[in-house]
Design goal:
The chain is an alpha/beta fold and 345 residues long. Helices cover 39% and strands 17% of the residues. It is globular. It starts with a strand and ends with a helix. The structure holds NADP nicotinamide-adenine-dinucleotide phosphate and ligand G4F. Ligand G4F binds next to helix 4 and helix 7.
C-alpha cells in the first residue's frame, strides 16, 4: 500500500520537528514548508535527513510562506497530501503586541489561504486538515479547567489571530464538509523549545549560572500559571486527531497547573540550589539560600500589556475518544529539558 503523504507548515519549529519525526517513523512521506532566511532556520530538522538509522527517509522541503498564496497553491498541487498540519505561526504572544498586523496575516489569514488553496485545488474531499489552535484563546478565562465548550476571551493580537483561524477551520468543516479539525493545545515544551519562551529561557539561564555565569535571569510575571506538557506527547495527539473517524475539535492538556515561579524553583532544585524570594513587585529577587547570590530579577520589558493569568485544561474528550494521554509530568518535562541543556552548554 502506498504510504500516506503529509504536508507540515511550521516544520522548522518545535512541534514541526517532533511531528515530522513521528510521521516518518510511521512510514509517511513528509513534505515541509520552509521559508527562505538569510541564516539557517532548519537546525531542528537537519538531523532527520542525515540519520543513518532511517536510511529510507522520505522527506522533502518546499520553499514558501504563509503570506504567499501562490507558493501554498503550488506546493499543495504538487504534493497532493493526505494530511495537512498547519503549525506555522508567529507564535510568541509578547511579540504579537509589537507586530499585530504581521501576526494577523500569518496566523489568521495564513490559515484561510491554506484552506482555500485545498478547496480550490479540489483536494477538499481527500485531504485532512489540522489547525494548531491554542489555549491562549481562553485568555481571561471564564471557567477552570477549560474544555472544548469554554467560551473564548482572547487577550493578545496572537490569540485574536488564532481565533480567526479557529473559526475559519470550523467554517470550512461545516460549509464544505472538509475534514478540518482544531487541536486546542495548552503550553507544551521540550529541548527544542525556542529560546524566548519562559521555560527554555529559565533552563538556559539556570545552566549558565550553574556553569559559572554571574548573570541573573531577568523575567516578567512570575505568578502566571500554565498547564505545561511535553511536545512529544502533543504531536502524537495531533496525529490522533486526524485519524479520528469524524473531524472534531479537541483540547490537549495535562490538567496540572504551575506558576512560572514554581518552574524556576524546580529547575534550581535539580541544580542543587534552593531559591528564596525577597522584596516585592519590580524589586522582587530570587536568591540562592546558601550564598545569598541573586539568581532572578524582574524586568518590566517582559510584562505584557494584557496578561493571561491562568490556563489549566481538561483533556477528558481526547482521553475518551482518542485514548490520548500525556506521558510526561511537570518534573520529567523539566528533567528532560535540563539534561539536554547541560549537554549543550
Ligand atoms: P515555533 O517553534 O515558534 O514554530 C513556528 C513555525 O512557524 C516555524 O517553523 C516558523 O518558521 C514558522 N513560520 C512563522 N512564520 C511563518 C511564515 N510567514 N510562513 C511560513 N512559516 C512560518 O512554534 P511551536 O511551538 O512549534 O508551535 C507550533 C504551532 O502550534 C504554532 O502555530 C503555535 O502558535 C501553536 N501552539 C503552540 C503551543 C506551544 O505551547 N508550543 C501551544 C498551542 C498552540 P521559522 O523557523 O522560519 O521561523
Ligand atoms: O513561555 P511564554 O512566552 O508562553 P505563552 O505566552 O503562554 O504562549 C505559549 O503557549 C501558548 C499556549 O497557551 C501558545 F499558543 C503560544 O504560541 C506559546 O507557545 O510565557 C508563559 C508565561 C506568560 O504568562 C508570561 O507573561 O510566562 C510569563 N513570563 C514571565 N517572564 C515570561 C517571562 N514569558 C516570556 N516569554 N519571557 C519572560 O521573560
Amino acid at each position: 500500500m502506498a504510504s500516506k503523504k503529509a504536508f507540515i507548515t511550521g516544520i522548522t519549529g518545535q512541534d514541526g520537528a517532533y511531528l515530522a519525526r513521528l510521521l516518518l517513523r510511521k512510514g509517511y512521506e513528509v513534505h515541509g514548508l520552509v521559508r527562505r532566511s538569510s541564516s539557517p532556520n532548519t537546525g531542528r530538522i537537519d538531523g532527520m535527513l542525515a540519520n543513518r538509522h532511517w536510511p529510507d527517509v522520505r522527506y522533502c522541503a518546499h520553499f514558501g510562506d504563509m503570506t504567499d498564496t501562490m507558493s501554498l497553491v503550488r506546493i499543495l498541487d504538487a504534493v497532493g497530501p493526505d494530511e495537512v498540519y498547519n503549525l506555522a505561526a508567529q507564535s510568541h504572544v509578547r511579540v504579537s503586541f509589537d507586530m499585530p498586523e504581521f501576526t494577523g496575516d500569518v496566523n489568521g489569514l495564513g490559515t484561510l489561504r491554506l484552506l482555500e488553496a485545498i478547496r480550490s485545488l479540489g483536494l477538499d474531499k481527500t485531504t485532512r486538515f489540522y489547525q494548531a489552535s491554542t489555549s491562549e484563546l481562553y485568555g481571561k478565562v471564564r471557567e477552570t479547567p477549560q474544555t472544548e465548550t469554554t467560551p473564548f476571551c482572547p487577550r493578545s493580537p496572537y490569540a485574536i489571530a488564532k481565533l480567526y483561524a479557529y473559526w475559519t477551520c470550523v467554517n470550512y468543516r461545516e460549509a464544505y464538509h472538509m475534514f478540518a479539525a482544531n487541536g486546542i493545545l495548552f503550553n507544551h515544551e521540550s529541548p527544542l523549545r525556542g529560546d524566548q519562551f519562559v521555560t527554555k529561557k529559565i533552563v538556559r539561564g539556570a545552566v549558565r549560572i550553574h556553569n559559572g555565569s554571574e548573570e541573573p535571569i531577568r523575567l516578567g510575571n512570575l505568578d502566571a500559571r500554565r498547564d505545561w506538557g511535553h511536545a512529544a506527547d502533543y504531536v502524537a495527539g495531533m496525529h490522533a486527531i486526524l485519524q479520528h473517524d469524524t473531524p472534531d475539535d479537541f483540547v490537549l492538556a495535562t490538567g496540572q497547573c504551575h506558576t512560572v515561579r514554581q518552574w524556576l524553583e524546580e529547575v534550581f532544585r535539580l541544580l542543587d540550589r534552593e531559591l528564596v524570594w525577597q522584596g516585592q513587585g519590580l524589586a522582587e529577587q530570587g536568591c540562592d539560600r546558601k550564598t545569598g547570590r541573586i539568581l532572578v530579577t524582574i524586568d518590566p520589558a517582559f510584562f505584557r500589556p494584557t496578561e493571561v493569568e491562568l490556563l489549566c485544561g481538561s483533556a477528558d474528550k481526547a482521553r475518551s475518544l482518542l485514548h490520548w494521554q500525556p506521558e510526561y509530568t511537570f518534573q520529567s518535562l523539566i528533567a528532560d529539558m535540563l539534561d539536554h541543556e547541560l549537554k549543550e552548554q
